[in-house]
Amino acid sequence: MKTETKYFGQIEYDADDVISFIGEGLFGFEDEREFLLIPFEGNGTLFCLQSVKTPGLAFVAVEPLSLDPGYDPVLQPEELRAMGVEESGELAYYSLCAVKSPVAGSTVNLRCPVVINGETRKAMQAILEDGRYGMRHLLSDIRRQEEQEETPC
Amino acid sequence: MLILRRRAGEALIVGGNIKITVLDTSDGAVRLAIEAPREIPVLRSELLQAANANRDAASESSTPQELLAMLDGKKSEGGPDKGKEAMDNGG
Protein backbone atom coordinates (compact mmCIF):
# COMPACT_ATOMS: atom_id res chain seq x y z
CA MET A 1 0.00 0.00 0.00
CA LYS A 2 1.12 3.57 -0.54
CA THR A 3 0.48 6.80 1.28
CA GLU A 4 1.70 10.36 1.20
CA THR A 5 3.58 11.52 4.28
CA LYS A 6 4.51 14.86 5.77
CA TYR A 7 8.28 14.29 5.89
CA PHE A 8 9.10 11.32 3.67
CA GLY A 9 7.10 11.94 0.49
CA GLN A 10 5.22 8.92 -0.77
CA ILE A 11 6.07 5.73 1.06
CA GLU A 12 5.06 2.12 0.77
CA TYR A 13 3.84 0.21 3.78
CA ASP A 14 2.35 -3.13 4.78
CA ALA A 15 -0.95 -3.57 6.58
CA ASP A 16 1.13 -5.06 9.42
CA ASP A 17 2.98 -1.75 9.85
CA VAL A 18 -0.17 0.13 10.77
CA ILE A 19 -0.66 1.09 14.39
CA SER A 20 -4.33 1.22 15.37
CA PHE A 21 -5.49 3.40 18.22
CA ILE A 22 -8.15 2.02 20.54
CA GLY A 23 -10.54 3.88 22.82
CA GLU A 24 -10.26 7.64 22.69
CA GLY A 25 -7.23 7.54 20.41
CA LEU A 26 -4.95 10.54 20.41
CA PHE A 27 -6.54 13.26 22.53
CA GLY A 28 -7.90 16.00 20.28
CA PHE A 29 -7.46 13.78 17.20
CA GLU A 30 -10.08 11.15 17.92
CA ASP A 31 -10.95 10.72 14.21
CA GLU A 32 -7.40 9.66 13.41
CA ARG A 33 -7.12 5.99 14.27
CA GLU A 34 -4.34 4.64 12.08
CA PHE A 35 -0.71 5.71 12.12
CA LEU A 36 2.70 4.60 10.92
CA LEU A 37 5.78 4.90 13.13
CA ILE A 38 8.71 5.88 10.92
CA PRO A 39 12.20 6.51 12.32
CA PHE A 40 13.99 9.71 11.34
CA GLU A 41 17.53 9.30 10.18
CA GLY A 42 20.01 9.83 12.97
CA ASN A 43 20.60 8.15 16.27
CA GLY A 44 17.43 6.07 16.10
CA THR A 45 15.58 7.66 18.99
CA LEU A 46 13.46 10.14 17.03
CA PHE A 47 10.35 8.93 15.23
CA CYS A 48 7.56 10.26 13.09
CA LEU A 49 4.04 9.22 13.99
CA GLN A 50 2.38 9.68 10.62
CA SER A 51 -1.37 9.55 10.07
CA VAL A 52 -2.31 7.06 7.35
CA LYS A 53 -5.32 9.01 6.10
CA THR A 54 -4.07 12.60 6.55
CA PRO A 55 -0.67 13.22 4.91
CA GLY A 56 -0.25 16.59 6.64
CA LEU A 57 -0.72 15.15 10.12
CA ALA A 58 2.45 13.82 11.68
CA PHE A 59 3.91 14.00 15.15
CA VAL A 60 7.54 14.00 16.17
CA ALA A 61 8.01 11.37 18.86
CA VAL A 62 10.97 10.41 20.96
CA GLU A 63 11.70 7.32 23.03
CA PRO A 64 11.42 8.67 26.57
CA LEU A 65 13.97 6.16 27.85
CA SER A 66 16.55 7.78 25.60
CA LEU A 67 15.95 11.07 27.43
CA ASP A 68 15.52 9.68 30.93
CA PRO A 69 16.82 6.15 31.59
CA GLY A 70 14.73 6.13 34.77
CA TYR A 71 11.46 6.77 32.92
CA ASP A 72 9.00 4.41 34.53
CA PRO A 73 5.45 4.69 33.19
CA VAL A 74 2.79 2.83 35.16
CA LEU A 75 -0.56 2.23 33.47
CA GLN A 76 -3.85 1.62 35.24
CA PRO A 77 -5.16 -1.97 35.40
CA GLU A 78 -7.98 -1.18 32.95
CA GLU A 79 -5.48 0.33 30.51
CA LEU A 80 -3.29 -2.77 30.68
CA ARG A 81 -6.36 -4.91 30.06
CA ALA A 82 -7.36 -2.80 27.04
CA MET A 83 -3.84 -3.16 25.66
CA GLY A 84 -3.88 -6.93 26.21
CA VAL A 85 -0.91 -7.19 28.56
CA GLU A 86 -0.36 -7.76 32.26
CA GLU A 87 2.47 -5.34 32.98
CA SER A 88 3.40 -1.84 31.86
CA GLY A 89 6.87 -3.06 30.95
CA GLU A 90 5.53 -5.21 28.11
CA LEU A 91 4.60 -2.13 26.07
CA ALA A 92 6.58 0.40 24.04
CA TYR A 93 6.35 4.10 24.89
CA TYR A 94 6.79 7.17 22.71
CA SER A 95 6.56 10.78 23.85
CA LEU A 96 5.27 13.47 21.51
CA CYS A 97 7.42 16.55 21.04
CA ALA A 98 6.29 20.10 20.38
CA VAL A 99 9.04 21.33 18.05
CA LYS A 100 9.43 25.08 18.49
CA SER A 101 11.42 27.87 16.89
CA PRO A 102 14.06 28.39 18.16
CA VAL A 103 14.43 24.69 18.54
CA ALA A 104 15.83 25.01 22.08
CA GLY A 105 12.28 25.88 23.21
CA SER A 106 10.97 22.48 22.12
CA THR A 107 9.11 20.45 24.71
CA VAL A 108 8.27 16.81 25.26
CA ASN A 109 5.14 15.35 26.80
CA LEU A 110 6.27 12.71 29.29
CA ARG A 111 2.87 12.60 30.99
CA CYS A 112 0.88 11.37 27.97
CA PRO A 113 2.95 8.72 26.20
CA VAL A 114 1.71 6.95 23.10
CA VAL A 115 1.69 3.35 24.22
CA ILE A 116 2.09 0.59 21.65
CA ASN A 117 1.72 -3.16 21.91
CA GLY A 118 4.37 -4.34 19.47
CA GLU A 119 2.66 -7.69 18.86
CA THR A 120 -0.89 -6.56 18.18
CA ARG A 121 0.04 -3.06 16.86
CA LYS A 122 -2.68 -1.67 19.14
CA ALA A 123 -1.99 1.76 20.56
CA MET A 124 -3.43 4.21 23.04
CA GLN A 125 -2.43 7.50 24.59
CA ALA A 126 -2.23 7.38 28.36
CA ILE A 127 -2.30 10.12 30.96
CA LEU A 128 0.08 8.94 33.66
CA GLU A 129 -0.81 9.57 37.29
CA ASP A 130 2.88 9.99 38.20
CA GLY A 131 3.36 13.62 39.23
CA ARG A 132 7.01 13.62 38.11
CA TYR A 133 5.96 13.72 34.47
CA GLY A 134 4.61 16.88 32.88
CA MET A 135 3.14 17.61 29.48
CA ARG A 136 5.73 20.24 28.51
CA HIS A 137 9.26 19.42 29.64
CA LEU A 138 11.91 21.51 27.91
CA LEU A 139 14.00 19.05 25.91
CA SER A 140 17.09 21.22 26.30
CA ASP A 141 16.63 21.11 30.10
CA ILE A 142 16.36 17.35 30.24
CA ARG A 143 19.59 16.98 28.30
CA ARG A 144 21.37 19.57 30.41
CA GLN A 145 20.48 17.75 33.63
CA GLU A 146 21.79 14.55 32.15
CA GLU A 147 25.10 16.16 31.25
CA GLN A 148 25.53 17.49 34.75
CA GLU A 149 25.02 13.99 36.10
CA GLU A 150 27.47 12.53 33.63
CA THR A 151 30.27 15.01 34.28
CA PRO A 152 30.67 15.77 37.97
CA CYS A 153 32.46 19.10 38.50
CA MET B 1 -16.23 30.18 43.10
CA LEU B 2 -18.38 28.05 45.34
CA ILE B 3 -16.57 25.85 47.81
CA LEU B 4 -18.47 23.14 49.66
CA ARG B 5 -17.62 20.38 52.07
CA ARG B 6 -19.22 17.02 51.27
CA ARG B 7 -18.83 13.62 52.89
CA ALA B 8 -18.87 10.18 51.28
CA GLY B 9 -22.40 9.38 50.16
CA GLU B 10 -23.42 13.02 49.89
CA ALA B 11 -24.19 14.63 46.56
CA LEU B 12 -24.48 17.89 44.65
CA ILE B 13 -27.03 18.87 42.02
CA VAL B 14 -25.85 21.22 39.27
CA GLY B 15 -28.30 22.93 36.94
CA GLY B 16 -31.15 20.66 37.97
CA ASN B 17 -30.05 17.70 35.86
CA ILE B 18 -26.47 16.88 36.85
CA LYS B 19 -25.85 14.93 40.03
CA ILE B 20 -22.37 14.50 41.46
CA THR B 21 -22.05 12.03 44.31
CA VAL B 22 -18.96 11.57 46.46
CA LEU B 23 -18.44 7.80 46.68
CA ASP B 24 -15.37 7.59 48.86
CA THR B 25 -11.96 9.06 49.55
CA SER B 26 -8.71 7.21 50.01
CA ASP B 27 -5.01 7.98 49.58
CA GLY B 28 -5.78 11.62 48.89
CA ALA B 29 -8.08 10.79 45.97
CA VAL B 30 -11.84 11.27 45.76
CA ARG B 31 -14.09 8.93 43.79
CA LEU B 32 -17.03 10.73 42.22
CA ALA B 33 -20.10 9.43 40.47
CA ILE B 34 -21.50 11.83 37.89
CA GLU B 35 -24.99 11.45 36.47
CA ALA B 36 -25.55 13.83 33.57
CA PRO B 37 -27.59 13.92 30.36
CA ARG B 38 -25.79 12.21 27.48
CA GLU B 39 -25.32 15.49 25.58
CA ILE B 40 -23.25 17.00 28.40
CA PRO B 41 -19.62 15.96 28.01
CA VAL B 42 -17.79 15.19 31.23
CA LEU B 43 -14.03 15.32 30.85
CA ARG B 44 -11.13 15.03 33.24
CA SER B 45 -9.51 18.46 32.95
CA GLU B 46 -6.13 16.95 32.08
CA LEU B 47 -7.75 15.48 28.95
CA LEU B 48 -8.21 19.01 27.62
CA GLN B 49 -4.61 19.87 28.50
CA ALA B 50 -3.45 16.69 26.79
CA ALA B 51 -5.45 17.59 23.66
CA ASN B 52 -3.87 21.06 23.64
CA ALA B 53 -0.40 19.58 24.03
CA ASN B 54 -1.15 17.24 21.11
CA ARG B 55 -2.32 20.12 18.93
CA ASP B 56 0.93 21.93 19.70
CA ALA B 57 2.88 18.83 18.79
CA ALA B 58 1.03 18.54 15.47
CA SER B 59 2.29 21.91 14.20
CA GLU B 60 6.03 22.18 14.60
CA SER B 61 7.85 25.43 13.81
CA SER B 62 11.36 23.99 13.48
CA THR B 63 12.24 20.91 11.46
CA PRO B 64 12.64 17.50 13.09
CA GLN B 65 16.21 17.57 11.78
CA GLU B 66 16.92 20.68 13.85
CA LEU B 67 15.52 18.92 16.90
CA LEU B 68 17.62 15.86 16.17
CA ALA B 69 20.71 18.04 15.83
CA MET B 70 19.99 19.58 19.22
CA LEU B 71 19.47 16.19 20.89
CA ASP B 72 22.50 14.63 19.20
CA GLY B 73 24.64 17.67 19.90
CA LYS B 74 23.85 17.52 23.57
CA LYS B 75 24.49 13.83 23.65
CA SER B 76 27.96 14.00 22.10
CA GLU B 77 30.05 17.02 23.08
CA GLY B 78 27.45 19.65 23.76
CA GLY B 79 28.43 22.18 21.07
CA PRO B 80 26.00 23.05 18.30
CA ASP B 81 28.68 22.43 15.67
CA LYS B 82 29.22 18.91 16.92
CA GLY B 83 25.49 18.42 16.65
CA LYS B 84 25.51 19.35 12.98
CA GLU B 85 28.34 16.94 12.31
CA ALA B 86 26.49 14.16 14.07
CA MET B 87 23.46 14.76 11.89
CA ASP B 88 25.42 14.89 8.65
CA ASN B 89 27.20 11.66 9.44
CA GLY B 90 24.16 9.91 10.87
CA GLY B 91 22.00 7.47 8.94
Oligomeric state: heterodimer
Q: Which structural class fits the helix and strand makeup of chain A?
A: alpha+beta
Radius of gyration of chain B: 24 Å
Task: List the total number of helices of chain B.
Answer: 3
What proportion of the residues of chain A form beta strands (DSSP E)? 25-35%
Largest sheet of chain B: 3 strands, antiparallel
Helix content of chain B: 25-40%
Structural class given helices, strands, pairing of chain B?
alpha+beta
The most extensive contact between chains is: A-B, 41 and 33 residues
* SSE run of chain A: EEEEEEHHEEEEEH
Mean pLDDT of chain A: 93
Strand content of chain B: 15-25%
| Tally of helical runs of chain A | 3
Principal-axes geometry of chain A comes out as: globular
Gap between N and C termini of chain B: 56 Å
The side-by-side strand order for the widest beta sheet of chain B comes to 1-2-3
Describe the structure.
- The complex is a heterodimer of chains A (153) and B (91).
- By secondary structure, chain A is of the alpha+beta class.
- Chain A is built from three helices and eleven strands, in the order ββββββααβββββα.
- The termini of chain A are far apart.
- Helix content of chain B is 40%, strand content 22%.
- In chain B, strands 1-2-3 form a three-stranded antiparallel beta sheet, with no helix packed on it.
- The model of chain B is unreliable at 76-91 (pLDDT under 50).
- Chains A and B meet through β6, β7 and α3 of A and α1 and α2 of B.
